[in-house]
Amino acid sequence: xxxxxxxxxxxxxxxxxAEATRxxxxxxxxxxxxxxxxxxxxxxxxETVTKVAQGRDxxxxxxxxxxxxxxxxxxxxxxxxxxxxxxIHASGGSAMVAAARQACDDSFPEGKRPLLLAVTxxxxxxxxxxxxxxxxxxxxxxxxxLAELALRNGADGLVCSAHxxxxxxxxxGERPVFVTPGIRPRGxxxxxxxxxxxxxxxxxxxxxxxxxxxxxxxxxDPAAAAAAIAAELIAP
Length: 236
Ligand SMILES: O=c1ccn([C@@H]2O[C@H](COP(=O)(O)O)[C@@H](O)[C@H]2O)c(=O)[nH]1
Description:
By secondary structure, this protein is of the alpha/beta class. Helices cover 42% and strands 16% of the residues.
């Protein structure tokens, strides 16, 4: 029986700094961190990322994926943003993950190192879509394969779907941090997500963090939507 608390990250996916700021202010008291990622950073710039994130834990979801030298240097360049969590793609390979971890250790001040999270298989891929990329055998097997690679090379945790959590906990225990997007409250539109679970199911499966975007940001009342999801994360 685990006593883990599952925390909530609101994904603020927009190009508009005013909208991101409005959402951040609305949901802040209900969520544990905010996510800013590719859409926002490319449109608004990294200095604006810092402004919106100010005073909040930042899940900086840039999903870095390049040769080890480039990824290491990129991680080193991100220290001015003070992220609490940073993402890379596990499929970049052992040396790339190790380079990212080394850069985290070298470039961030003592006690300020972000959690390095390796994306395994995107939650928008089902087994058939994954097979199209040349990976037969299903998402769960590939997640476990990439998890081993990433954790052995210094990742603190993984981004995966909640569907893989039971197998991951069995294989890797309680220590790694598991972050699960692809979360949909019961009845919510899945959109492009394929491997989805509800907040309650993800909590019961052992998620450390869930990431929720559109069910919050597209709601008529984002604060109420975030509050309802946060309520699901409090174990009865
Ligand atoms: O495998 C992954 C990795 C990251 N994401 C990100 O999470 C949010 C989910 O947003 P929703 O609107 O709740 O679908 C989004 O920012 C993705 O970039 C993911 O979905 N899956």
